[in-house]
Structure formats: structure tokens, C-alpha cells
Amino acid sequence: MLSTIYRKAVVLAVISLAIGMLFVVVANAATSGIVKRVYTDKARYNTGNTVTVSAELTNDTGTSYSNNITITIYQGETQKYTTSTSVSLANGSSTTVNFTWTPPSTNHIGYFVKITAGGSAGTGATAIDVSNDWIKYPRYGFMSEFPVGESSSTTDARVKKTMQDYHTVSFQLYDWMWRHENMIKRTSGVIDSSWTDWSGKLTIAWPTIQNLISSMHNYNAAAMPYTMTYAALQDYSTISGVSNQWGMFYDAAHANQLVFDFVDNNPTTNLWLFNPASTSWQNHIYGQYRDILNTAGFDGIHLDQMGQRSDPYAYNGSTIDLDNTFAGFVNNLRSNLNANSLSNKVVTFNVVNGAVDGWAAPDVTKNAQADFDYSEIWEGSDDYIELKDYVNYARQNNGGKAFVLAAYMNYEENLGTKYEAESATLNGVAANTNHTGYTGTGFVDGFGDNGDYVDFTISAPETGKYALVFRYANDTGTKSTRNVYVDGVLNKEIEFLDQADWNTWAFDAYSVVQLSAGSHTIRLKKDTASTGFINLDSLTLGTFEENSVRLTNAAIAASGAFHIEMGEADQMLGHPYFPNFSKQMRSTLREGMKDHYNFITGYENLLFDTDVVNNDSGTQFASITGQTVSGDAASGTIWQLNKRSTNYDIVHLINLTNNDTKWRNAANAPTNMSNLATKVYIGNDETISNVYLASPDISNGTTQELTFTSGSDSNGKYVSFTVPSLKYWDMIYMKRTFSVPNNDIYEAETAIKSNVATNTNYASYTGTGFVDQFANSGDGVSFIVSSASDDDYVLRFRYTNGGTNATRDVYIDGKFAGTVQLKSTGGWGTWGYGEMTAHLKPGHHSIVLWYNSTNAGAINLDHLDLDKTYIWQFDRQITTVPAGYRITYRVGAPGWVHWGVNNWTNVVDTALVSNGSTNGNLDYEISVGPFTTSTTVNATFLWDDNANGVAEYSTDRWEGTNYNITIN
To answer: Which of 89, 135, 163, 890 has the most beta carbons within 10 angstroms of its beta carbon?
Structure first.
């Protein structure tokens, strides 16, 4: 789409900007007092590995220190290890204390680590990931700088600090290659020591690439090369031997090949696009992938693409169904790697502008054999709830594989302390107001003669990196340049790109500088070698807005996904062109990010494991006294996300008070909460033994146990407790056992009830009563059930209906599953069943029967009967079913299943009912059974073509074929 294309087109605007590492440690996260840094020696550990945890101490107390330093390691709430060592430090001195530990041999376990300095002298935290592979918990980072002449120790320091601070387990090496279709530059078969990148502006050093990969492997982290699925640079045929017959075209006559123009007036940077389904293109580009894997030692392939576009033409004039070609491309690549002894290499693919049912998302998430899924997020998922829904959608489609989001924070926002140009010290220039769109009281114009300059006096609140971002206009028809001076010293030359007109303001001209805390002078000057004219509006100290970053990271992790954002030791992604560092983190955000990554690593099993099942997003599951709680991330609320794992009920509280629903944009500070009286409703068959709270905002993430009480009220069974504080994100996890009821019958009267009542005034109910007054929009009953196996299940709702036909919608784990028909039973004392069939993974699930605005009718509800079933369809005509299972017949028209057993004895006509499916071939169903061993079920269909709802043997149409199923 145009917006996606534009974003990728702007990358050249910043290629010439700040390159080179300036990182320093200004403030250390997850620590206090004399504990200054805590970190591990590896990004992850294979089972059996020994872990080294280091604690850097500096005694700045003003007096000598002598006490114990204690390490305590937890798996969730359970302490797994602790030991202490005595340390004596003179005032002003420093030391590093190393602890070693060999974790249990269980694979894929996260551990939280707490360091305590005795005498209340300080604390620190880190985390440990014990995993024999990295793709289950892909804490994905990036590297985007490959400078010539960088020493191996400097390269290693970039990798090491990123790994230590953010537990980065894999790195995307961004734009490292020579050309998209010819990645490693060689001369006479020998790899060049360096090459100019595809933009023609950056020099890439092959030794630096090699050193980066070596360092990553040394820390047990993976190196993933950025590649393009279907692109080649100008002159691809003569340089790389690529044929345009493999391309994609705007026209059926292949006169005009698809091209991506970066709008930089430089045709050598054009990307020409090729057909992902072309065997010849695949053979070429797969060969390139194998080359970089074997030659460079990369650990996989990161595949990118340019996003949504209309279906193009192949060279032969046929239409390419582009969004449905990518899974095939990935799967063929997987087969190609496997066939060439590269089966251990990881493959992932970028779904650009990812959204539920968005362009390419169904094909890739359902069908691609990627090792984990990856998606760049744009306008398709603008809201917090859209992020959560997309994560749920993708992980349901891909079988629970890990999911990484590229979600660029504060993109297209010029954030940070702003200094207006018209208020600065001016030389040779003047202020004006004759163009619109400026900020402040005007702008500076006439800025084009040699010696012209603008001096800004700025204040740096702390020592560290700062992005000097200049907002400007330029309609000269070409780029202009200016020199930046910091405190009288030339920093660098920066470019100001040509814009549409003088009323169009841009803020893509910037330089990153290292500043000490205090006052500085920033001069932007037209020197002799500088070119062109500009109007200058302001200087901003480009800064990431902390509240939005913290809330978005909470939303992504609580939803079950990872966020690629940290790299280059101390940089955060805020732009699709990864080397754009026009926003910097201040120390409080850096500290918060260290806490965040400690948290998501230490509690990875409660956040990301496949047994962690998303539950319904309604508001019936939690309430907080005096607060507005939402299940859909509504503005100004406390957003509660409910999940269940094998042993825990999990409730995430994300504090959206004072904020809207948009995750990317700058946010307000949420209201800090304390002593929140919280009630969480649970299933009647659940028993809570312990309630725990952990938060990256409290005690650096350490778990604390909460006192709780159990009870029940008109809404159902609950546990209540007090949440001590809520800043951004709290995770409450409750230890739980589950007693499966007899015959898998879940009683409605003891379920979680919304706007309904219970009664006993009609006979023949099961349990202790039934639900009545289930008659209006907003009424509902929520069941928490347990499924022992990965199976299809019939959800059989026992009800009475003495009025008109009714319907109710069914939601399973928060996702719409269909509509149940609850037809009149002829009286309120006559019970019947309404049903639908759904697939459940092993675990604990929420099943919600809800009256929406599109539903109708009143019912009494007795219970939910959960029965295993096999599904018969015309495209899946099963012939055997295990004993004890039901049989669901699912078809595309109304009518009856005409069935009997053992050669057509006990014949019954069972009406097919609408299930609410949008698939016209599968929108009617009914189940029969269960059956005992050695039974043969005989069935055919009588179709109600005249739609009168009456089985008329001589009038209605018979299917004409008998279908037999043997019960084993």
C-alpha cells in the first residue's frame, strides 16, 4: 500500500546521518544502591550449561562497606537456589562478584534472579533462559552498523552490552549486504574486504560482519541476515545474471516491470521486483541464501517484502496472486535448505502491515513453515486491542509458534525538548511567518548564504547521547546541506531533502552527539562547501516518550508476543530504517527496558508458552473497586487480559488511565494506583491455593505473594485480594487446581453470570438449579472448562425455551466461534439441546454464551455438556470413529441427517441447524451419538430445499448416497 511504500522510501533520507557508536553507561537498570549492574554471561543456556551471574558493585555510600552479597534464583514463585558471599569495599571502590549455578536439566525454562546487598545497601536483578534453541523465546534485537576498521573488541562490546542488558538471543543484521540479489561482493571469486551498500552511501566492512557473527555465537545468540524475498537492484542482469523473465509486471505484455523507487532521483537504488512463485527466481535467490549461510555463518534467513500491492502479472501474462505466494516461497526455501544440509537454519518472514485477516497474513500464518512468525505493524493494527487480537490470531493459526512484532514507537512524531529557531541567536538570517505549518511564533528564512548560522543554547538533563533533530522546509528542487557544530567543534554535515513546497515541514535531518549534563551551544551553519537554501523551524532533542513505550511493551508481552526494538548496545528502534537513531532513550527508559527484559525472560513460561491460553476479553472476569476495568483496552481504563495455563490463572492489568487506545503515539503518564481491591471470577471447578503478583515496575520484577479470600456472589465464584500498586503493568498469577465435573457437565447456575439470575421453579434440571432471565442484550454465562486432549468437541447447551426461537453467540477463549440455535422447546418445563462443534487444544478454556444485539429470544440455561466428536464433511468423509465419541455432520444446506445404526435400525431424522459460519459449505451442523464399540452408523441426508422446516420424504430431496461409519 502507498503508506507502506512511502515508509520504506524514506530510508534514504537518513542514510547519510549519524553512524558510529558512542555508547556509554549513564545509568544502570534493575539496580539500586551499591549494586550498579547485574547480568549473565550468555543470552541463553543449553541444558547442563553452567550460568555465571555477575554483579558490579561500587561503594558510593560515603563509608566503608562489609556485608554479604546474596543471589536468589526463582522459577516463578519457587526459590530454586540461593547463596551468599562476603564483600568488603572501601568507600569509592568497586568490584565485580561472580556467582555460578547449574540449572535443572529441564528445557525451555525461565528463571528470575535477585541480587541483594546486605544491610539494605542495594538490590539488582537479571534473568536466565535455559533453552536448547532460541526460536521459542526469540528476544530479537538488531545490528545495523558495519564500519571499516572497527576493532573486534569494539564490535564485541556492542553485542555484549545488548545481550547483557536486554537478554537479546538473536540479532537481525540489517542492510549488511552488497545487493539484494547478490549479497556478498566478490572480485575474481575472492570476497571483498568492504563494499558500498545498495544506497551507494554506506561502506560495509566484511571483517566487521564476521566479528559480529562471532561475538553473537560466543554469547549463544543467533545472527540473522536481513534479506529481501523478491528484489534486485538496477542492472541486475549484467551484474548478477538475473533475468527479467522472472519478474513481476504492471501489464500483461511485460512491458513495465514492477519497481520500487525510493524517490531519491537515483535510479541505481531502484528495487526491481520478481515473482516469488517463479522457479527460476527461487533457484537464484535460494542459491544466494545458501551462500551467505555457508560463507558467513549466519543462523538463518530473515525474509522481508514491500507490503500490499495489487496483483501483478507474470512474464507470460498470467496474474500473480501475490499475497498467497509467500507461504509457498518459504516452504520451498525450507525444503531447499533441508536438501542442502542446512536443516538447522532458521527461517522467518515479515508480514508487512500485519492485522487479523490482513494482506498475506492468512497465507503466511496458516501455511508457511517459518520457525517463528514476524510482522511489521502499521495502520492495520493501530490500537492496543488490535495488537492483542492479531497476536492471538497469528498464534492460533501457526500452532503456537513464537511471534515477533516490529512496532516502531513514536514514529512520525517529533518528540523531545524543543528549541524554536526564531528565538535562537541568528547570524545573516531572519525570522518570518509567510509560510504555514511552523511551530512557535515563526521560522528562520534567508538561510542560504555562506556564513549564515543559527545558534541554539540547549540544556542536557543528563550525560548521554542526544539526537539533534532539525525541523525544516526546502523547496529548492534539490537537497541542501549544513554543518552542525557542538560547543564550537564541527560535528558533521547533514542533508535537508527537497520537499513538496515551502509549507511542507520535515524533521528527518539530525545528528547524534554525546553531551555532558548542562548547557551547550548547537550551531547550524552554511559553510563554503554547504549547499542550497532552507527554512529552519526548530531544533528538538529527539527523545522516545517513556509512557507509550512502557505501555506498548506491556501490551505486546502480555498478549504473548515479542518486540524487536533493542540493538547497537543502547539504541531503540523508532523507524523502519533501522540505522535511524533520531530518537534517544533517557536513563529512566533505559532502566525500565532492562526491568522489562528481565521480566519477560524470567517469566517467559507464564507469558509465551503454548499452554498459556488466551481467555475471553469481556469485563465479567475481573472488577476493581472504584476503577473502570475493560477487556478491550478502552481509553482511560485498567485493561485486564485473562489467561490460563496448566497450573495457573493469569490476570494482566495494564494501566491505560489518562490515555487513548493508540499504542504508537506519545502517551500520558498513567495514574499511579495503590491498594486496589480486586475481585477475579473463576470457574466453579477451579480452586485457587495461592495468589502471586509480579511486575517489572515493582521490586525489579520479584514475585510477591498476596493474601486472598475466596467466596461467591450472584455473579459466581471469585477470589479477592489487594493489588499493592499499579504503575504500567502488573501480572497476577494464581496457583490453581481443576476438578473436571462428572461427564464433563458444567452447570450454568455455578458458572460466571452476567445480568442473569438463577432459579429452580421448573423441574428436571441438573445440578442445583438453572439460569433464568437470560433474555436481553448483554446477558451471558461464562464457563471455564478443561479439555484433556487436542480434539473436536460438541458444546451442548441444555436449555428450555417456552417462547419464540432464540439464538446466542459463542466465544471460545475470546474468539467468536459461532451462533447456537435455541429453538422453542414448546414450554418452559421442556428441556432440549442447542449445540455447536469447536476444536479445543489441551488445557483450560473459557466458553462464553452471550446475548448480542443480533441475537433474539429468551431461554433458561441448565448446563454445558462438553463431548468429544469427529466431524464428517463432504470433503472429509470419515469412515471410523472411536467409541465414546459423537459424530458431527457439517454441511452447507438445511435439512436432516437421516440415520440409524447396524443396518438402518432405530432410524431418526435429526435436523441440521445453522452454526453461524461464514463458509457457505459448512454453515449447518448437528451431532449424534455417542456410540459403543462395533456399532455401524448409517446415514444419509434429506435436504429441505423448500425451506419449510418439515421433513417431507416424498417432496424433499434425498442425497441418494448412504454413508457408513464404523465405531472402533
So the answer is: 163
